[in-house]
Design brief:
Largest sheet: 7 strands, mixed
CATH superfamily of the largest domain: Type I PLP-dependent aspartate aminotransferase-like (Major domain)
Number of domains: 2
Structural class: alpha/beta
Strand order of the largest sheet: 1-9-8-5-4-2-3
Number of helices: 13
Order of helices and strands: HHHEHEHEHEHEEEEEHHHEEEHHEH
Helix content: 25-40%
CATH architecture of the largest domain: 3-Layer(aba) Sandwich
CATH class of the largest domain: Alpha Beta
Number of strands: 13
């Protein structure tokens, strides 16, 4: 069976550097918020084209702390989508705000600017844009809408490390950009981790205090309310090894995606579309199909791992029933969640996947 995800082929490529990085941390005497985190923050900010970055414990924490840094909290509303899994919505709730879930563009499966325009209101405190599957969202109209409403924009780039829109990295357009380093990501750690990036250094300094209980630097005296959300030194050191290879990783992903697309030409399914001017990074290769169980069965018989991102729209989950959105309220979102299936795509994947996919397609 070709697994849906396997970090080991990529790890073997960088094994020497990773072992050296871990050893360096263990010999340093610093395990939390030391020179590796500081260096990685600077290097990641430079790679993203922004002034600064703050390392935190996860991508979900990155969104929550970004929202809190912007003053989003109780009584506030944050506009976002329901087809990107639970984390973005969970982060909004953790910040104390109410998620306002809007529908998506049925071609790209990202947030629909027209739906955002309708949802903007007096309590809107932020627009949370998710660059789903590694595809940049419709940034130009979304940023215009937010600017006209006087609303800050947070970009959820958890699946879009290195993706670009008109040559510029995602994460550098909004007030803040948020990243995850969960192991499956294009730039993945060997555990959890996250990053907040931006150009407002005063805002980033506030968030940097928030990630450690709101302490004043060099003291344990809380100046603002905060909590514990820290990127640790070992993960930062490992990510520093992998960061210089991110563009090569994304180039490999695009090449793999192109081979999938060639095989799928004429198949009974549609590949998620990218927008003109965007350069996606294919965190996932997602197909929309009319009969997902049939696709899953054909892939199983061919020995190809697969997954669904994401099967349940958030507004249909029991935990978020209080949002008051019944099934049918977001038709494009629900249709997408009912039809998507993800094929395995990662650096070093077994080349047999293409031959096996051709066999699976013959069975459809």
């Amino acid at each position: 069976m070709i697994p849906f995800f396997d970090y080991r082929p990529e790890t073997r490529r960088h094994a020497e550097g990773i072992r050296s990085a871990v050893d360096r941390v263990l010999e340093s005497g610093r395990l939390i918020l030391g020179p590796e985190v500081e260096s990685f923050e600077a290097e990641f900010a430079a790679a993203t084209g922004v002034a600064g970055a703050v390392g935190v414990a996860s991508g979900t924490d990155a969104i929550e702390l970004a929202l809190r840094g912007l003053g989003v909290g109780a009584g506030s509303e944050v506009i976002t989508v329901a087809n990107a899994g639970v984390p973005p919505v969970a982060a909004v709730r953790a910040a104390g705000a109410r998620p306002v879930l809007v529908d998506i563009d049925p071609a790209t499966l990202s947030i629909d600017p027209q739906a955002v325009a309708t949802a903007l209101g007096p309590r809107t405190a932020c627009l949370l844009i998710v660059h789903l599957y590694g595809f940049p969202a419709a940034l130009e109209p979304l940023l215009e809408l937010a600017a006209s409403a006087g609303v800050p924009v947070v970009e959820d780039c958890a699946q879009a490390h290195g993706a670009r829109c008109n040559g510029r990295p995602v994460g550098s357009f909004g007030t803040l950009g948020c990243y995850s380093f969960y192991p499956t990501k294009n730039l993945g750690a060997y555990g959890d981790g996250g990053m907040i990036v931006g150009n407002d250094l005063a805002l980033l300094a506030k968030i940097r205090r928030t990630r450690v209980y709101g302490w004043r630097e060099g003291t344990r005296r809380s100046e603002i309310e905060g909590r514990n959300s820290r990127l640790d030194e070992i993960q930062a050191a490992i990510l520093r090894v992998k960061l210089p290879h991110l563009e090569a990783i994304n180039t490999e992903r695009r090449a793999l995606a192109a081979r999938f697309s060639e095989l799928l030409d004429g198949a009974p399914g549609n590949v998620v579309a990218s927008r003109p001017g965007s350069q996606p990074v294919f965190h996932l290769y997602v197909v929309r199909c009319d009969d997902r169980p049939r696709w899953a069965d054909a892939l199983d018989r061919a020995g190809i791992g697969h997954a669904v991102h994401y099967e349940d729209p958030v507004h249909t989950m029991p935990a978020y029933a209080s949002l008051g959105l019944a099934r049918g309220s977001l038709p494009h979102t629900e249709a997408a969640c009912d039809s998507v299936i993800s094929l395995p795509l990662y650096p070093g994947i077994d080349e047999q996947v293409f031959e096996r996919l051709a066999t699976a397609l013959d069975d459809l």
